[in-house]
Amino acid sequence: MVEPEQRLLMLIENDPAQSRLIGALAGREGWRVLSVDDSEKAIATLGTRQGMQLSAIILDQGVPGDRACELIAELKERRPALPIVMLTSSTSPQLAVEAMRAGVTDYLVRPVSPDRLMQALRNSTTREAPGDELIPLSEKMTSQLDFDTMVGTAPAFRDALAKAAKAARGHGNVLIEGESGTGKEMLVRAMHAASPRAKTSFRMINIAGVSANSLESQLFGHEKGAFAGAFDQQVGAFQQCDGGTLVLDEIDRLSLEVQDRLVSVLESGSVRPLGAQYGFKVDVRVIAASNLPLADLVAAGHFRGELLEYLARTYIELPPLRERDRDIGALARYFLHQIGQQPGLRPLGITGDALRLLGAFEWPGNVRQLQAVLFRAAVFCDGDALTADDFPQLREIIGETEQPVRNGPIRESAGVQLYTGDGNLRPLEDIEADVIRLAIGHYRGRMTEVARRLGIGRSTLYRKLSDLGIDNAA
């Protein structure tokens, strides 16, 4: 068996700068890289001694162009078990479908962060849980940017949406925490679309995808000659977003030095570019997102407590999918409806056995992973509905025998739990509180509509909110 440090990667890339970059990234993870710059050399390499040692291929779609799918099919015909990761600048779902059917293992739309590229390579060469395949493409499928695109009835999830809907109408900073794939980016975009700043500038920076050397310049800007290599002036994100919204994703990855500068900007309301003798007053709403609990990082000395205070004027936590497994049925049908609208695909149903299989999985990649797995299954489905057989990786992980779903069967109800874990009815007060939370989330905090749909007066609704201790979105 080839040891991990001896794995050989063939990179099909005709841009020398990209070849060096990807080669360096792969080298840090123990890969040896064999670069070729055209399709003919790639095919010829498969028959060589080195070609027989290959463990994976990264293909830049720009090399074969319109013949990318033909090249993928030929590579897979010669080496069926060899995983292929394709890089492309195209967001066409049609190309994604054709590439997958030709045999591509993963499909990444530029711009793609180094971490995501390496994660795709790791996922394609392991037999572990289904990875986040086609994430960049599936993220672009949703055209609507409002809270109606956030599907789910779990109380913790609806509470998060109600809080986000309320915060969207203000101007204060917001911190959203939740595991990777829980929907933080979609929630951010929904909040911006519903905010008074909806028509102003909006920029999202992924901290993990920017090198430490260039991050300060991206955020705060720099003057010409501020440091070696600063040949031109650069306007930073804070100035670009004056009057608008700046999103800092994966802010848990921010260095302490940059955290200190960010505290200064948030405290003073002004930003000074690197090398400048003066600053600029700015009005920027910051929405920060973190995969890790920042309070824990503060306790460990890895995050500034003062910065956390400035960011968490409103704090929202999105629960992982494993804590809202009764939403899986609704999410699956919603995603399949979206997927069915894409060129080259068609609307599909989903059977009960498939839903039970999806419900038995832990979903470490959360909602984003569920969407990607459904996309892949839909591409290869020949029938009118997805069955358990359309998810061979899940069956292999969970086992061929029927497994009990973690929290009982997936319910197609409104999502209000009637029974406790020991089978007894929950108190009426708790059930009533869940119904009200569900209504507030469903009608996006429009309290008059909530009261009308529940069949009670608005004053009665507010009294119940107070009695039940519910934070409403009005």
From TrEMBL:
Residues 8-125 form the Response regulatory domain. GO terms for biological process: phosphorelay signal transduction system; regulation of DNA-templated transcription. Keywords: Activator, ATP-binding, Cytoplasm, DNA-binding, Nitrogen fixation, Nucleotide-binding, Phosphoprotein, Repressor, Transcription, Transcription regulation, Two-component regulatory system. One of its GO terms (molecular function) is sequence-specific DNA binding. SMART domains: AAA (SM00382), REC (SM00448). The modification 4-aspartylphosphate is found at residue 60. Residues 150-379 form the Sigma-54 factor interaction domain. One of its GO terms (cellular component) is cytoplasm. It is found in: Cytoplasm. It comes from the Bacteria. Its main location: cytoplasm. Member of the two-component regulatory system NtrB/NtrC, which controls expression of the nitrogen-regulated (ntr) genes in response to nitrogen limitation. Phosphorylated NtrC binds directly to DNA and stimulates the formation of open promoter-sigma54-RNA polymerase complexes. This is DNA-binding transcriptional regulator NtrC. It comes from Aurantiacibacter zhengii.
